[in-house]
């Protein structure tokens, strides 16, 4: 039986799980950026700073000092709450912060489960977005079918599987995480051009 995406992520070495989590967080980051632009709430800089620091650490390791706990505090400080914002965009913004915070916790604890959870947050975020938009008026059975078949939900799984394909190939070639690999992944995010909920991303983000 073929392994699902989460199982395949669990099979990767920790260094490649780090890259997978970073890639998926990078895809979610612009959702927060747009929320900030629309509402004026928070500040994207702690998210951007945390991602940049973690990308550097992902291939340099102990050569760079990253205070993951401090970055996590900064991210938690600018995480919005659904109670204070009556708009759909708050949920993808919350997901971006949650994913980055969980990822940082995984780095602090060297906990692979947290890194796999980033993929779960991204998939769940797509489902929540679809439920609140196209699925809002649907009957439960129709909604469930929509969540399985919608192009955004299918695409999210395809992106995660393609990411794991890439990382599995790198691992099989015995290539350790490197600056070139990090740049390739960062370029893949930008080239994709959209976030996990299908929002166009600024090419500079």
UniProtKB/TrEMBL annotation:
Top-level division of the source organism's lineage: Bacteria
InterPro entries, sorted: DUF416 (IPR007338), YP001051499.1-like_dom_sf (IPR023381)
Protein's UniProt name: DUF416 domain-containing protein
Organism of derivation: Pseudidiomarina homiensis
